[in-house]
Amino acid sequence: MGVAHHSHYFHWFELGRFELLQNSEIGGYIKRQGYYFPVIDIGCKYRKGAVFNDIVIVETYLRNKSKAYLEFDHKLFRKKGRVLLAEGFSKHVLTTAEGQMLYRLPEKLLNMVQLFCEEGVT
């Protein structure tokens, strides 16, 4: 009953990303178009260990840095005391259902991402 395995942090980041997309037009657009968005890069800086029975809070931010991929930043906190446990990121390209990578995000999606980022939603 010690510290959470490091792989759990990536799962928590994924849940944050999923929740963010489910609650935005962006996720619906990606789904309707039949796109997938596989991870091409991911990282985590561990600050403190999550321990057994910790309740964690994930904050996920969509960044508007590129016209070629989607980038998310994540912060993971222990609810009690709001202690920062980890900071991470993930980058995702878009692919078609057939696996063809899109080298540029569709203009409609770029506009949606820009608007979303301007609103500062997490």
From TrEMBL:
It comes from Paenibacillus larvae subsp. larvae DSM 25430. The keyword Zinc-finger does not apply. This is Thioesterase superfamily protein. GO terms for molecular function: hydrolase activity. Keywords: Hydrolase. It holds the Pfam family 4HBT. It comes from the Bacteria. Residues 1-83 form the Thioesterase domain.
